[in-house]
Please model this.
Amino acid sequence: MEKITIFSPATVANVSCAFDIMGFAVEEAGDRMTFHKIPEKGIRLIMKNYRELPSVPEKNVAGVVALAMIEKRQPDFGILIEIEKGIFPGSGMGSSGASAGGAAFGVNQLLGNPFTNTELVQFAMLGEALASGVAHADNVAPNLFGGFTLVRSTNPLDVIALPVPRKLSVSLIHPLIEVKTKNARNILKKSLLLKDAVTQWGNVAGLVSGLFMEDYGLIARSMQDGIVEPVRSMLIPMFDKLKQAVLNAGALGCSISGSGPSVFALSEGMETAAVVTKAMEKVYAGKDVPYEMFTSAINKQGVSVLNKK
Ligand code: HSE
Model:
């Protein structure tokens, strides 16, 4: 194979109560990346848009992943990566995760698929470490695997693919301000009360069970985050209003997507999700907050091949 173009989906990490351990992939938003074999060894990068992002491989999320992979395999060719971002950096929709996961997938293909999916997640985590200072896997795992994933442990890496209830649909609104994951992590409390931890892990277990049992009521009851959301919601314009509007419109639950500022809601069925997205829009419409929105199915495939030759 000389060249491959892929779609690398956006992801919603945390999924309310499951900070740093759960995420899911989104069908309607993502990056496009093309990988070419080139005669000169090493990695070259071209940013097709968002040219303010570094194109020096050592400083680029996709670049560090690709460099680590060729360092391991020492191919007798180089790789040129063209990146067309469909996800705003700093949006909370897994922008760095899409670049990192996409790079891991695309480079692996040109190398002849020597690495397993779990190894790809490990390489992609290097990109997350560059972007946020922490090698979290809750975006790159669903980006690569698709659907919902649970990262039980990052060391050793243990990723579990969770089932996607058939009707589960997502609404996303992205107020066009940038929140850097590093900053959104720095404001979090470093310790918590045991009683709050008990409530939180009850909800995480409930959410996982709800996905397995396709129990939308249980999913709704479990989408409560008493630890991270109350702190980070301060960074998001009109978060409380947005959440109330979304729940009134029939969503199962609503929380911050990744480290924000995007806000997501899960609904039973695309029709309800479309109503919920409209309710989100109403809160921001006419206010001084530019935004973009998506109503989407859950992406079940993860990174996908658009064409290759
Ligand atoms: N779990 C990470 C965080 C995701 O919330 O900081 C960042 O996209």
Remarks:
- The chain has a mean pLDDT of 96.
- Residues 13-14, 20, 94, 136, 138-139, 181, 184-185, 258-259 surround L-homoserine (CB under 6 Å).
- The chain is about 35% helix and 25% strand.
- The CA atoms of residues 41 and 78 lie 4 Å apart.
